[in-house]
Amino acid sequence: MATAATKFRIDVSIHNLLQDSNGQKPRASEPKGLTLPVPVFPQYPEKLDDPGPQRPPEGNRKWGVRPIYRAMRGWLYPYVRSRVLPGDFHPITSYLFVEYKCNLDCWYCWSFDNRIKGMTEDVARRSIDWLHDHGCRVLACMGGEPLLRPDFIHKVVYYAAKKGFWVYIATNGRLLKPELADRLGDAGVSVFNFALDSWELKPSLPKAFVPAQTNLEHILRKQYVYDYLVFFNINICRNNLEDVQLLTEYAHDHHIATDYHINETPMLEQDEHFKHLSENPTYFRPADWRDLDHLIDWIIEKNKAGYQMVNSVQRLEEMKTFVRMSSGLNIHEVGWYGDGNGSDTETSEKLKRAVGVVQSEDGELSFGEWNCRAGQNNVIIRTDGTVAPCFPMYSASFDWGNIDQFTFNRDQLEGMKKTCQKHCFSTLNHNLAYCYNDARVIKWMWENAKRGFRGGVRSFED
Q1: pTM score of the predicted model
Q2: What pairing do the DSSP bridges indicate for beta strands 387-388 and 378-381?
Q3: E strand or H helix that includes residue 187
Q4: Right CATH for 49-450 from 3.90.79.10, 3.20.20.70, 1.20.1300.10, 3.40.50.150
Q5: What is the residue extent of each domain of the chain?
Q6: Cα(415)–Cα(372) distance, rounded to whole angstroms?
Q7: For 415-448, what is each residue's pLDDT tens digit?
């Protein structure tokens, strides 16, 4: 059974609210002529000359005082601040869209848009200052591809790190040449999130391991010199199930954490620049659900075996339900495996175990409310300085203001979330919502302290 991809996933009423701007777009931040300071390089000549280990060190990775303090300053201190200070807006995590342009064209990506100019130094500096003033200390540099302008991204990382930010760069890795990687490591980057979807190049999935292998091998050695982390960010698609296994095993063999996403159609309707909505080989069809379940079961098995993963077992299990939810099909009619045989006992049991998933009487699946923190503890800043509450809403034309004057209204956000939470599978926002609980934070800190802050990355829930 083949199904056409839907133009948007969210309910019609909330979609119209977020996109009906009467021809008006959020007003860009007025330029003030500021620039970013020129980075000092190298700050650490001895690290520049250190090639790093040729093989990953044996045993759990031991972190020194400096990276432990950097992580606490980035995550723990803003969390405590948000719990004790009045007001609704206390961002812990932020996405800075420095580019919409990209050097690759992944068919599932609706962020790619080569018509839009990248962020200016003026907007970047004022954005970082604005976030700093509101207590935020986690800055994710996003695109497009954030490494398109090497000198610019070097300045952004240097300035943010000097102000105490835990800086995260999401990249396809193709432009992360050793020279640039060393500049960013020296500037104080905390994480390289290496987005890879396939082993060899595929027409619809150009974020491949082989073309980026040389760059990756360099940062894998130098992470032990500059004390940053390396992640594989893997988007599970209809046409890369075997590749996901290859990338997972490579990551495990090289002590790399993995972060899995399930391929999604756009949350909001996109304009004409998004060319790949129809006949897209990356989107799942009902006939693919059984194979997807087998892959997710395999990933869960590896998670339980100790592989470093950001995703919890529960979250991985819920991917099976989400892919069925996003198809828009009635589960009673198509069955758990999309074979048209209707629902059965196995279906019901699986749904019960998928915590947080609601099944209506007519067979529609959706998530219940899960305490989304968008616009409260999470925020995005677009290339022009306008803001939005979360990554899935970056393309909305609703006016939340800009870094000069923002309007995250509690009533508007709560009304929007009643609908959009039912359709959202954002890993970061779910993790943020889950950990926004004092008892869980204390337990997590205690467990890590008992281990001497050794080891790699695991889900907050594990």
Answers
A1: 0.90
A2: antiparallel
A3: helix 178-187
A4: 3.20.20.70
A5: 49-450
A6: 12
A7: 888 888 877 888 788 788 877 877 777 776 767 6
